[in-house]
Write a structure and sequence with these properties.
Layout (H helix, E strand, L loop, with lengths): L2 H28 L14 E8 L5 E11 L4 E14 L2 H9 L10 E13 L6 E11 L2 E11 L5 H15 L6 H12 L1 E2 L4 E2 L3 E8 L4 H13 L1 H12 L6 H20 L2 H8 L4 H4 L11
Antiparallel strand pairs: 1-2, 2-3, 3-4, 4-5, 5-6, 6-9, 7-8
């Protein structure tokens, strides 16, 4: 049943959540120069989420932490959850199509993870997405996730820093990981109907099972540990930059791309809605405002 491993993974995702929430509130506190310093300091609103099986029994839940209208963050959500139960018919078919063994015979599952999306006040600050997760069924287990940068106004040095930090955290595990996970992110976060990527990439993996749970868990932890040093310096640098209506318009149009991707293609969004998780938590990733032209 891997109960000890599940408990460790779930505890790690909660620990990472706590670190990120504290760091993001710290950015709100330290914003002392540049636009919007006269606004109230943003704080996370934390809501416990609950999931129930069809018969009403407990099926897990988590914490939804959302900050709206801050000085730095226009909307940011950091969610953690641990859910379990029986996969529905659609989810069973999706898992079977991915080659997960034994789903038809025993459709039980357990999943835990952290999911984060940040939409920024200043258009010069890049939006960002990060998630890591562990999934278990009686016939298989795996890890997945990554992080990717979504600037509406691109700065080459920011992209370089974001990628270099991730590479530095992955290389100690295996120098083949970073190029493989970067290429995977480039493919996964592509928007076919727009013929473009939604951002400047990052790293992504799914179905990570090398046969060594400890090694795969350590890799997943370092994907999470890479996030704050990859992202915080970019926000600190760009939040002081002036912006006007033209830059805000560019931001709103770019957010439309983000919304389209999440609603049409994102596997996590589809799984969360299909398995009956709190819809507000699943759709937390959507921007507060967007524009289509």
């Amino acid at each position: 049943m891997m109960d000890a491993e599940k408990a460790r993974a779930s505890a790690w995702f909660r620990e990472l959540r706590d670190q990120i929430v504290a760091a993001f509130e710290g950015l709100e506190d330290s914003h002392a120069a540049g636009p919007l310093t006269d606004m109230a300091t943003g704080r996370f609103e934390v809501t416990e989420t609950k999931r129930h099986s069809d018969d009403g029994s407990d099926a897990g839940g988590g914490l939804m932490s959302v900050m709206r209208g801050g000085r730095v963050f226009e909307k940011v959500g950091v969610n953690v959850s641990t859910v379990y139960g029986t996969l529905g018919t659609a989810a069973q078919k999706a898992m079977a199509a991915r080659g997960v063994p034994g789903i038809a015979e025993n459709p039980q599952f357990w999943a835990s993870g952290i999911s984060l999306v940040a939409h920024m006040q200043n258009p010069n600050c890049p939006a960002v997405h990060m998630n890591t997760r562990m999934f278990w069924t009686p016939g298989a287990w795996w890890f997945g996730g990554g992080s990717d940068l979504n600037p509406c106004i691109e700065f080459d040095e920011d992209t370089a820093h974001f990628h270099a930090t991730q590479k530095a955290h992955l290389d100690p595990h295996d120098e083949a990981h970073y190029p493989r996970l970067k290429a995977w992110a480039d493919e996964y976060f592509y928007i076919p109907h727009r013929s473009r990527a939604r951002g400047v990439g990052g790293i992504f993996m799914d179905d990570q099972n090398s046969g060594d749970w400890e090694a795969d868990f350590a890799l997943t932890q370092d994907i999470g540990r890479a996030f704050l040093p990859a992202y915080l310096p970019l926000v600190e640098k760009r939040r002081v930059m002036p912006f006007g209506a033209a830059e805000k318009d560019v931001q709103l149009v770019h957010r439309g791309l983000y919304a389209e991707y999440n609603l049409v293609y994102d596997r996590g969004t589809k799984f969360g809605l299909a398995t009956g998780h709190d819809a507000n938590a699943v759709l937390m990733s959507l921007p507060p405002l967007a524009k289509w032209v």
